[in-house]
Amino acid sequence: MPSRTRCLVVDDSTLYRKIVRDVLNSLPDVEVVGAASDGQQAIERIDSLRPDLVTLDLEMPRLDGIGVLRELQRRRIDVAAIMVSAFTAAGARTTTEALRLGAFDFVLKPSTNSLDESVAQLRHDLGPKLRAAAWRKRTPSPAPQTAPRAPRPAPRLRLPGLRPDVVAIAVSTGGPQALTQLLPRLPASFPTPVLVVQHMPPLFTKSLAEDLDRRCPLTVSEASQGQPVRRGEVLIAPGGKQMRVAKSAAGPVIQLTDDPPENNCRPAADFLFRSVASVYGAKSLGLVLTGMGDDGALGAEKMKQAGAVILAQDEASCVVYGMPRAVVDRGLADVVAPLGRLHEHLAAAAAGRALA
After folding, report:
1. The dihedral formed by the CA atoms of 159, 160, 166 and 168, expressed in degrees to the nearest 10
2. Among 33, 125, 136, 261, which is 20 to 30 Å from 292 by CA?
3. Catalytic pick among 37, 172, 207, 284
4. pLDDT band at 130, cuts 50/70/90?
5. Cα angle at 231 between 228 and 234, to 5 degrees?
6. What is the longest distance spanned by two Cα atoms in the chain?
7. What's the gap between Cα 271 and its chain centre?
8. Catalytic residue among 52, 57, 165, 295
């Protein structure tokens, strides 16, 4: 395995190129092999330098970040891209498109007035994502997030008549691509509401919901305070808020809170899953998809204790096998399946057919 991750910095701003270079140079096992000031130059330098990873601005002259990603796909150049995005509605929409086109992840451009603070903020945000991208690039399968343990085999599940009243999904890195593959495959007649925690900041979750709504037979929206949880709808937790389900006289409703982050995340899957366990108990199904860390594992354990069924995405189809691995290693997953088949398991559960 190479000892250093070779990185190319792409940004049309001299200041941001300096900030990103300073951050990368401060990280262990990273080598900055070059920089580019526009998308066309980026393609040329990617082609000649063959970096492992590119930090990629979205708005650039000649060829923007989206154009770079499309050209990389056309040329079949395998390089991980981490987008550097502005914290704006337009930036959120473009970033959502970039993630669908295969960008590994994104970070926000620092918004501080101090160069030192900007470097510190970007180092905090970029470091873990760069390490995860480097592992994904260098290993034949995604890297473990913790010391490896022998996973317990998932049992074959025979649960005719399950028909859950809710499906709760946890997802992080690789999530927009995974959700774009999974949710459009659920028919408009899917009888169960779907609640999603995707680790994203404000604006970005709204953009993701709007993009998925255009692609899905089901209605997809960013959840709002007091919104009823209804069949035929997919509700995505808003960035910057914790989301839970609560009982009301008319049925379950969404509650959004300013509770502290959990697992450094707000929204956090554990927060949602605990409420699902409390409100729905055995009439619930949890699904943990690709992502760094272990958010969702403790919540899945609460759901499992309440009698719920837990599904996990398999390692081979994950961008990062962190969150699903945490569930599988704890012996919580009733079914472990590739992303391309998870919609079949959801449909089977919703129809009361056996899962295997």
Report:
1. 30
2. 33
3. 172
4. confident
5. 75
6. 64
7. 16
8. 295
